[in-house]
Model the fold of this input.
Amino acid sequence: MWSSPLQARDVPKYEPIDPEELKSRLGTTPLEHDSTERHSGMVYFCREENWGAPCFVYYPELDYACSELGPELKSHVGSVFVEPGVICRMATLNGQSRCAPTKIFAWPETQSGWSDLFQQQVPGGEGQLGYETTHFTCTKCTNCVRDAE
Done:
């Protein structure tokens, strides 16, 4: 289910975002901060750790499609953050040119994002997550809730 053929892997729509604007969104929901500019399904990537520029907001298909990262980020992702209501996986291509997921990220577990992807090992594999990530997959999350506390 998390693996899709190569022809399904287009770069989704994405645009630059100021790292300071991105940092202001960490740990908040759209209802709590800037509801007019944010919505479920937005995924943020920065090239450098600790939200270092350049940063981009992606608008992927939410149907498990394997989405390719743009050339600014491919194999060099330092930070990641996702809006509530979406569950995603960082991925790379395997030997059969299929999307091979490496690590899951979803709200609320990563509600403050991950800012250290060059320090994280690929689960069950070799290498750092930030250098191995070339693609990602996302879908709507039906059970992603924020702690009431």
